[in-house]
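[audit] Reproducing an earlier prediction to check determinism. Same input, same settings, fresh worker. If the tokens differ from the archived copy the diff job will pick it up downstream; this log only records the rerun itself.
[audit] input (107 residues):
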Amino acid sequence: MQVEWTTQAQNDLAEVLHYIVDKFGLNTAVRVNGEILEDVENLSRFPLLGRTIFTEYNSGLEYRSLSLKRSSVIYIIEGDIVKVVMLWNNRRDTKQLRAILSGNMSD
């Protein structure tokens, strides 16, 4: 399967990496970036690796979550494409995540 990142997901990753650079330095950010990209790449081979967290009933769109250390990759599977929708900080309220996803923010 092919992995695609939405603009939102790309922006989320950039935001996380900027934060890590500011707090922990460039080397740590490079390492974390590599870890995130490797975990996401695993989804191309094992797209059901993450658990279902929300299903949009009108479209049947199923949002899945792959937990990383402090964040989760939120994604959907569309045919033979794994679409990374966003990165989610696991310390945030999951009710907020459900509210965002119910607005169908994938692009």
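[audit] rerun output stored. Observation attached for the diff report: Residues 26-45 form the longest helix (20 residues).
[audit] end
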